[in-house]
Amino acid sequence: MNPTLLSGYLAKAIPRNYPVLLAGKPGIGKTDIITAAAEAAGAELIISHPVVSDPTDFKGLPFPTGDGRAEFLPYGDLERLAKAEHKTVFFLDDLGQASISVQAACMQLILARQINGHRVSNNVEFLAATNRKIDRAGVSAFLEPLKSRFFSILKLDVSAKDWVKWAETHEMPPELIAYIQFNPAALEDAKPNADLENSVSPRTLAHLGRQQTDGLDPEEEAEVFAGAVGEAFAIEYRNFLALCRQMPRLDAIIADPGRAMVHPNASVMYAISGGLARIMNDANIGPICTYLDRVEPELSVACMINATNRNPQLKNNREYAVWVGQHHKAII
Fold this sequence. Notes:
The chain is of the alpha/beta class and 332 residues long.
């Protein structure tokens, strides 16, 4: 599933108490998607990290009753699950990295919704996430009975389109957004490696983007970019940036959209369309639409989608309505 499709499914699963396990490589947004889904459902979110937990965290501590017996007393998250009075998502993050004994404790909790006589509130929904063995993330074994406790095990796929949509609302550099739009395979086909080097993922791209937005000295870029996303991506992206820095100024395009340069390099045009999307507002949408009429339809559509993702109010603008009338087939 891509992030958009998964978010739609979780909107149904959370109210119905479907326990769901998400699987995928590190850094692709599993935690962010679940956090957003819980917020959208109006649920309280409790994030647990079984990899650093003890079995007693999920079954309680034995406590003598004074008559030669002992009872397991719930504490911490377990106590909150028993007493939850409002919709609550209990998210078990990195479950596949947990020890077998901790996985076994989680197993009873998820299926029976009780452990050692302590019932989980009906308001609680269980969600979990894990990496896979092939991701080199420390997942060595996953109990088969635990897997079958989940109604569905869903693989989260990386989607360049969804990352671009996220990036437009999280202040990522327009050049980085444009590069991923121009070359989506750089993100979607990235593989983990065994070296001490980051690979490309939504998470590492966000780290690169934040540092670029905050400002780097030119002599820092090569090493910092490579440290964020790996040397191969860093080299290609810096070459793309060099082209972008030769593109015409955006204010000059808006001032004279009918004669402003349409750059012959397609990658630079992706950057221009991304920059125009970033600054588009009710005052300049008209000149921008005039310029977009002179570029490839694919770029025109990408620019407008990015702009309205950032500022949905643009859809109320008359110029936008006219543009949609001319490009509705391309949007569909």
